[in-house]
Amino acid sequence: MSGIAAGIGAGVSIIGGIMGNSKAKKQARAAAREKDRINKAMTAFENNRQAVINPYSDVKSLASMATDLSSEMSNPYADLGVATSAAEIQMEQTDLALAATLDTLQATGASAGGATALANAAARSKKDVAANIEQQEAQNEKLAAQGEADLQAKQMAEKARIQGIQISEGGRAQMAQAQGEAFKFQAQEGRDQAKLDRMAAGLTQASADQANANAAGAASLSAAISGVGNIASAYIGRP
Questions:
Q1: Contact assessment for residue 30 and residue 212, using Cβ atoms and an 8 Å cutoff
Q2: Which long-range contacts (CB under 8 A, 24 or more apart) does 13-17 make?
Q3: Rounded Cα gap, residues 239 and 229, in angstroms
Q4: Which residues are CB-neighbours of 195 under 8 A, at least 6 positions away?
Q5: Average pLDDT in the 108-113 region?
Q6: Rounded (10°) angle between helices 112-236 and 85-108
Q7: Residue 53 in 3-state DSSP?
């Protein structure tokens, strides 16, 4: 009776082992297919990842924006002249005064000394007026030249300031664009890497599932073989 019981137990072990081995093989094959799928997906994903970029490839030199302004500079004092019109007026007025004096002397019969004194007084008066006019003209020209120099200095300073702003803003805009491209690239790289990490985790799990299934299949097969051995021993041990 004990032999029959042993045989039944062994049969159960064989059937269980065969069924367990078959199930384990199916699980191992499914895990292998999953591994293959993930490997292909990872290969395709890596082959289609974004190309590595140089975010500064479009940055250009702004040196051409800095122009030489020296050609616009001038010396407003270069053509500063001497006031001669006043001297000419002085000579003309002196001549007229002398002529008038002579005419008067001839008409009145005055002495030559009186004529000379009158002519000298007229000459001095015209000379003072002429000198004053000449000084005013010279001063006006000097002030006009100084004003022109100040104006040119302010204009050059403003042009230099505008150039500085243009160059600075141009450089800032290029740098901002390059940084934006770098940010977009890094953000996409982060997403891609996260996806690859998930794929790698799935691949690791599939490998573990395949290994576990193979181990379970081996254990089931061992149980079946052991059951066969037990049946053989039970029959051999019968009287």
A1: no
A2: 13/223, 13/224, 13/226, 13/227, 13/230, 14/223, 14/224, 14/227, 14/228, 14/231, 15/227, 16/220, 16/223, 16/224, 16/227, 17/220, 17/221, 17/222, 17/223, 17/224, 17/225, 17/226, 17/227
A3: 18
A4: 45
A5: 56
A6: 170
A7: coil
Task: Check: pTM over 0.85? Answer yes or no.
Answer: no
Predicted local distance difference test score (pLDDT) of residue 201? 92
Contact call for residues 153 and 74 (beta carbons, < 8 A): no
For residues 27 and 133, the model is more confident at 27
Rounded CA-CA distance 205/213 in Å is: 12
CA dist 168 and 162 (Å) reads 10
Greater pLDDT, 7 or 41: 41
Closest Cα partner for 220 from 2, 8, 26, 31? 26
Q: What is the pLDDT of residue 238?
A: 47
Residue-level pLDDT at 98:
60
> What Å distances lie between residue 119 and 85, 96, 98, 110, 114, CA to CA?
22, 10, 5, 13, 9
Q: Hey, what are 213's tokens?
A: 């299934």
* CA dist list (Å): 126 to 104, 118, 229: 19, 12, 153
Residues 154-212 pLDDT 10s: 888 888 888 888 888 888 888 888 899 899 999 999 999 999 999 999 999 988 988 88
